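Lecture 7 notes: from sequence to structure.
We start with the chain below.
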Amino acid sequence: MDVCYLDDIALSGPCTQYVLDWDGIPGSETFPLTLNQRNHLESVRASGRPSWVAGSFILPSSVLAGTQHNIDAIANAIHTLIGDYDALRLVPSDPSENEGSQRMWSNDHLSIVTEAFLTDLDADSSTIRQEVQARIDDACVPGRTPGLFFALCGHRLVVASDHFHADMASIHIILQRLWDLVASPAEKLRNCNNDHEATEENAGIVNGNAGTSSAPDPATAPSFIDVVRKEQEASVRWHDSKNSDELQRALAVWKRFFDRTGGIVPAFPADVGTTESVTPHHRTELLVPAAHMAGPLSTRTFAEVVAALASSVHTVVGSESLPCVVPIHTRGRSSSPYHGTVGWMVSNGPVIAEPGNSDGVRQWLRDGIKAVTVPLDIVMETFSPVMPTPQPFMVSYSDFRTGPGRSAAIPGAVYFSSLAPTATVQLWFTRNDKGLSLRAKYPGTPQAEAILDECVEDLSRRLTGTD
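Predicted structure tokens for the same chain:
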């Protein structure tokens, strides 16, 4: 399963952390923070909890052949990776000097040292996971040096990043780049040939390159600083042209959404036992095997899933519609070079799903793409919506068969994130070579547990046609 939590990953020892040692100070040039970065910093400061995204893959045998060889090869790959992507070298400026900005470290100031931990080959996987999580929590926080973590655990390389630097699509790019840097030419070719799941629908056309498993060349991808500057220019443009037709068309989507929700950013439409953030429960499961992905579910997966989810929620809790927030990447169309850029490039779009009405969901998704052209701070200023819970009810979808380097080309690739307290339900649907999977996070209350049990069971029956 591609998207999960650390609890779901089997880790083995011995373990080695690649500790990043930054000498000196970041560069003096300052850059504005993006809206995502500002919100992230405020959230971490308020909660005192780290928020990170991460991934792991199985290292090629050539790297694992010799102890010193693999240590040097991995360290060199990490050093090259951090130099490739400027987002991984950005840090927030000291608030006493220049609040609301960020600075960039030079890769010349980076050295990497190794630290062995849990060296017992028989160390329990649960013990290793607990130690890895503690080390990620310690490393992946905003500060004067980049919040990054790298560790070798048995045959797996574990990579994590403070959300300040990256989104989950970026983790995908990072894993593929690291694989490209450490694998031998023969291993890369063998891995491509072993990717037998390719079909006419997902035959590996990535950024126009048929049959390639390589990550986009970092030299050809725009820098994240380019993204930062474009966002700042767009914000100024929107504020200076509040009556523009383009702005009004985008805001009209949000107006329609808030008119339907009564000016509320929706939570899950049922009592889940709390309105405050509490310790979450989570689950990951395969909903529909690849062999059963057929018809509309195969060709318009997300719309069909959300419409079916609305039906399941209606059956379980009686909700007539399902308003939710949907993460939408801002990298542009699949041909956009920004699909090779590492950085946090996600906004949120509004969707209201009616039970069984996938056409309606598709229209909301199309409109949502227009809506995310307007920065969310302008949306919030315009409508001043109420949030009944600290987090919105969110439904996400990722197709790992497409994009910058398919996950099937990264052996054993998994993607996971921090598990922060929550007051509502958050759902991540994933399409990959195994089929359609679900990762869910929800309050750890008996009410939420019972509702999720029923909803997921009903949804699975609907999607597999066993209703």
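Points to note: The longest strand covers residues 280-289. Residues 268 and 351 are 13 Å apart (CA to CA).
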